[in-house]
Amino acid sequence: MLILTERKKGSCEPDEGYQLLSFFQVGSSHTGSGDSMDMGGAENRKKKPTPTISELISRYELSNMSDGKSPKTVSWYSDILHSFGKYLDTRRQPQNLSSFTIENVRSYILYLRQKSKYEGHPYTPKQNTLLSPKTIQCHIRGLKAFSTWLYLEGFTGENRLGNLKLPKAPTRIMEPLTPQEIHKVLTSIDKNSSTGARNYAVLVTLFDTGLRASEVANITLGNLNLKDDYIKVMGKGAKERIVPIGKLVQMTLWSYIDRARPASDNCSNLFLSHSGKPITVNTVKLLFSRLAKSSGVERLHAHLCRHTFAINYLLNGGDVFSLKEILGHTTLAMVNHYLHFTTSQITAQHHKYSPMDKLQSQVADFATKEPALTHAK
Predict the structure, then answer these.
(1) In the 8-state DSSP scheme, what is residue 68?
(2) Whole-number Cα distances in Å, 101 to 93, 157, 172, 229
């Protein structure tokens, strides 16, 4: 009950005597249960319902979006977590945090190792091959990130997956495209058609810059500086960078814009479809799928172009620091990965500058000259 002193009549403002005297809870000794009010009794407060896994995934999705993660990254996390939720359903586990345990996640790893590729996918048919160890590792990375978020947000008292080790995945060497393969791919494109001219321009740009498929699809005319030979690119994490281009790409893009690019007043994207709409990442993927068949280079895909660029850049004398900037990596860790593929070049360089080979050659030369010097004396 709130007890207030009397205020002046006709006044909207309280006078000096209008003040709060007390705020108290009516005790059990007060007669008349209908008149009593329990202002802070825990027994009358409703207990908050425990959020389900699905509700927590939605909150996590909102958190990722507010953190500025790209739509693709947000979707990636959500898909992985919903996959785990479906697994819990098949095991008839409750859809709440009581099921989010390290034991269940370890069982989930074993389940993934027996799962076929694209099993349960709404559009792509199931394949006979199993999920790769790298794919399984990515699933667990997503769950560990979710576990950390649950702890930081106060939904759990500890990071439940903090001690869970990532399943090992073998490191496979991705061989870059050979000069012969690159030639086969480029010559399989009909540059005389508008679509062919666009596809050729996309390919040489990727081979010369190492751009990601999403980055090349989103190049705009405003970010293309052919006069100074560079493209301004918006990469992962909304990080903008300058990517240089060579003379061949410069001339190819000039030709595409001047002769083959559809006229469009409403679209500033560089690469357009025949109807004047921007190409998408799926357009680029479909392009590579078709080129892999028509050229006979079946292992061709967009990321292999990026990989091939990085290797050739280093082999042609480029350094890892400038390569890091061109590719848009934040650290040298990923760039150093490409150094493993320059073994043949390193071996050739060692053969050329081997200290012991040089020393042996010098000793041999000295040995052949020494008898002649002795005889002359």
Answers:
(1) T
(2) 11, 13, 31, 54
Residue 288 has pLDDT above 60, yes or no: yes
List CB contacts of 113: < 8 A, sequence separation 6 or more.
130, 131, 136
Residue-wise pLDDT tens digits, 165-207:
999 988 777 788 999 999 999 999 999 999 999 999 999 999 9
Distance CA 115, CA 84 (A): 13
Contacts of range 282-289, beta carbons closer than 8 Å, 24 or more positions apart: 283/217, 284/202, 284/213, 284/216, 284/217, 285/213, 287/199, 287/202
Q: How far apart are CA 182 and CA 298, in angstroms?
A: 12
SS3 225: strand
Give start and end residues of each alpha helix (H) in 210-280.
Answer: 213-217, 247-255
Tell me the residue range of the domain where 166 lies.
76-172
Whether 23 is covered by a domain: the verdict is no
Six-digit token string for 86: 């479906």
Apex CA 134: angle with CA 133 and CA 135, to 5°?
A: 90
Whether the pTM exceeds 0.85: the reply is: no
- What is the pLDDT, as a whole number, of residue 16? 42
Residues 138/80, Cβ–Cβ less than 8 Å: yes
User: How distant is the alpha carbon of residue 152 from its chain centre?
Assistant: 23
Q: Are residues 222 and 140 in the same domain?
A: no
User: Please, which residues bridge with residue 20 across strands?
Assistant: 4
- 153 and 196 together in one domain: no
* Residue 200 within a domain: yes
